[in-house]
Write a structure and sequence with these properties.
Layout (H helix, E strand, L loop, with lengths): L1 H14 L1 H8 L3 H5 L6 H8 L6 H12 L7
Helix pairs in contact: 1-2, 1-5
Length: about 70
Amino acid sequence: MTRLELNAIATRAIVDSRFKADILNGHRKESLQEFSLPEDIFRDVMDIDASNLYQFIVQLNEIASRPALQF
């Protein structure tokens, strides 16, 4: 489910301007609580350093592309 959850985060950021603002401007932890991410992936997403949505999604995709992740 992890890849699906990461895809859901990216999709939500594209379609929901408030969610996008929250994940880019200091409220990421609160915004991610609704997603079922393993602790290590949650930390990785929290560590993303992005000033815009494109940068965030590129780094999110890098996490999702790891061979060990489940669909």
